[in-house]
Amino acid sequence: MPQKPRSNSSDVVAPALAGGRFPIPQPAEPPRVLKGLGVSAGIVIGRAIVLDSGLGKVHRRVITPEHVKVELMKFDQALKSSIEELAAFQKQAAREMGDETAKIFAVHQGMLRDKSLVGPIRRMIESETVTAEYAVYHTFSEIASKFRKIPDSAFTTKVNDIDDLSIRLLRHLIGDSVMRVKSAGENTVIVARDLTPSQAAGFDRRKIAAFATDLGGRTSHTAIVARALGMPAVVGCQSVTEACTDGSVVILDGERGVVIVSPDSEQLEQYRGYIEQARVYSLSISELSHRPSVTVDGAKIEILGNIEFPDEVRAVNEVGGEGIGLYRTEFLYLTSDHEPTEREQFQAYRRCVELLGGKPLTIRTLDLGADKLTQSREEIPERNPFLGLRSIRYCLKRQPMFKTQLRAILRASALGPVKVMFPLVTSTAEFRQAKYLVNDVMEDLEEEAIPFDRSVKVGMMVEVPSAALMADTFAQEADFFSIGTNDLVQYTLAVDRTNERVAGYYNPAHPAVVRLIRDTVRAARRRSIPVSCCGESASDPEYALLLLGLGLRTLSMTSSAIPPLKRLIGSVSISQCERIARKVISLDSDVQVSAYLRDCARKIVPEAFDDRSDD
Ligand code: PEP
Ligand code: MG
């Protein structure tokens, strides 16, 4: 069980932080180690900004007796600022709405000056040595709950007043999330209950070095964005927001899924050593970037990149990616406050084509829904969005929007080798309907004399069991397959990929998943259509051994995963991988498969594994 923190670390509020070298907090707090899911590799030693201790629940945090003075000063300052703010509102309201309305702001100022109200807050900070924000939150909540019990409407109004004052004071104490992230210093570790993919995508990389969340799963799109940004991240920590305060020193290990809050000097030294080890390893593999990826027995493996934003193509090029196997176009929607126009989409696709300079680009049509929702979607929330109107279903229901995207993609196909890929296809009817719309748009473009590639390849993701089970049929109609293990695991094993509570059940090594992949690859080979894997498993060196053994020769992944994978490919033979796959197929539990693959990978590329324990 994690221990409760015993002191607040805001007394170590940051001197300029350089290269992860931090002064050890004095007086030292006991370190607190939290285990989550490491979803984006890398180690960061930084300082926390806790986002959503926000204005919901504020956790009780004990401070050291030496710190009480500072908390009292913070409280007095927040009180003063709140009163000044209310005085300004009062003047403005008097001007714009008359004296009667303005009175409420005068009443609020009076309440904040009332010793019987604020006195208990000061006393609580002193006697219980807790943070000012907790004392405010607790005291005001107690008063409000007493008032709520009184069956008199006058007290209902008072509850509103109390809530309003509490929020105002807390805002001055904790600050506004957006502003705090904006004014973050370098090496900041964002700590939050949860983050959306677009929030993560919006972080300023120069300052935000990593993030940790209470919620989330390994293949949630927020995790995918973290990998795309090369930002170390640990999700599903359950209580990291409780363990940290703003300014807490944090070690975040994105590979092992460990967050250490208030580390001691020994832990800091140890992790500085790991950072150095990782630096040396990544230098050693960076030289592989421009070597072709060929196994020791001469099989050429095509390594492609997964991207969410056009500029990521540069990173893929830099590590020797041979094209883009998955462009998640929905991110243009997710980061925009309006539905992107045909022009905006075309510009994004054209940029990719230009940056690729003749290398292939697979554009996946909008995969909106589930954990990828736009701000502009007004539908009533679905009860079960992962099984709801998402991806290709959503597009087929909103044909004008879908056709706009298809036009933009087809126009880009005139500029370079572009392929179209549909997500989450579950039936031949869906695939045919989507293809029909592609033809429709082609006819429109022809009529308008707008150039496009008539022979553009149209393929599909195989990411639900129904598609994998019918791969033989789909292979007669689709030009190519790309296996999406992220969703395939979720839908085969009935495990929400974003839910940390069931993360232990989410395992691509499950024999059922392995068999679906095997059958999909076989079907594609029988019909001689290309097949690749673009799920996160493709970039896992242990799992990649299995994929190669099952017959895959094209893998698509986030750019940072390409060099280690090239190292693996250059160290193994296809016959070795086929032996591994045969053995895996004979096993009947995911635990056995995982252990076996791990063992194989450790033997083949021991240097990729450091001495950190996995516990
Ligand atoms: C997948 O499901 O494996 C996949 C690549 O698509 P996404 O992660 O965008 O759902
Ligand atoms: Mg998917």
Notes on the protein architecture:
- It is a single chain.
- This protein is α/β, with parallel strands linked by helices.
- It has 3 domains: 18-54 and 183-282, Phosphohistidine domain (Glucose Oxidase, domain 1, 3-Layer(bba) Sandwich); 65-180, Enzyme I, Chain A, domain 2, CATH 1.10.274; 294-606, Phosphoenolpyruvate-binding domains (TIM Barrel, Alpha-Beta Barrel), CATH 3.20.20.60.
- Helix content is 47%, strand content 12%.
- It has helices at 68-97, 99-113, 115-128, 132-148, 153-174, 177-182, 197-201, 221-229, 240-243, 265-286, 312-318, 330-334, 342-356, 391-397, 399-413, 428-447, 465-469, 471-474, 485-493, 511-526, 541-549, 562-569, 574-586, 590-604; strands at 32-35, 37-40, 43-50, 188-192, 208-213, 233-235, 249-253, 258-261, 302-307, 324-328, 361-364, 418-422, 457-462, 481-483, 531-533, 554-557.
- Helix 13 (342-356) packs parallel to helix 15 and helix 21 crosses helix 24 (590-604).
- The protein is globular and about 80 Å long.
- The structure holds phosphoenolpyruvate (PEP) and magnesium ion.
- Phosphoenolpyruvate (PEP) is lined by residues 224, 326, 328, 367, 463, 484-487, 534-535.
In terms of quaternary structure, what is this?
Answer: single chain
What's the Cα radius of gyration?
A: 28 Å
Relative strand content:
5-15%
List all distinct small molecules, including ions and cofactors, that are bound in this structure: phosphoenolpyruvate, magnesium ion
Under the CATH scheme, which architecture of the largest domain would be assigned? Alpha-Beta Barrel
Q: How many strand units?
A: 16
Q: How many helical stretches? A: 24
Structural class computed from helices and strand pairing: alpha/beta
Poorly predicted tracts of residues: 1-27
> Which outline best applies?
globular
Terminus-to-terminus distance: 14 Å
How are strands sequenced across the largest beta sheet? Answer: 1-8-7-3-4-5-6-2
How many structural units, i.e. domains? 3
Fraction of residues in H or I helices: 40-55%
Query: Which fold name fills CATH's third level, the topology of the largest domain?
Result: TIM Barrel
- Which CATH class of the largest domain? Alpha Beta
Going by CATH, the homologous superfamily of the largest domain would be: Phosphoenolpyruvate-binding domains
Q: Estimate the mean pLDDT confidence.
A: 88
Could you describe the largest sheet, including whether it forms a barrel? 8 strands, mixed
